[in-house]
Design brief:
By secondary structure, the chain is of the alpha+beta class. Helix content is 51%, strand content 29%.
């Protein structure tokens, strides 16, 4: 994560964090959980036919 500081007259007026990496990781984890939930839901509803 990088932080960008905006300076005016030697004073910090804004500190902006670049959270792109954190958002991509969170999005990947969330997508994995959603797809896993759909898969488990399908397994739960498919009728099993032995042999």
């Amino acid at each position: 994560m990088t932080v960008r500081y905006d300076l005016e007259n030697g004073r910090v007026v804004a500190a902006l964090a670049d959270n792109d990496q954190a958002h991509s990781v969170a999005g990947g984890v969330l997508g994995f959980l959603v797809l896993g939930g759909i898969f488990v839901n399908l397994l739960a509803w498919v009728p099993w036919r032995p042999g």
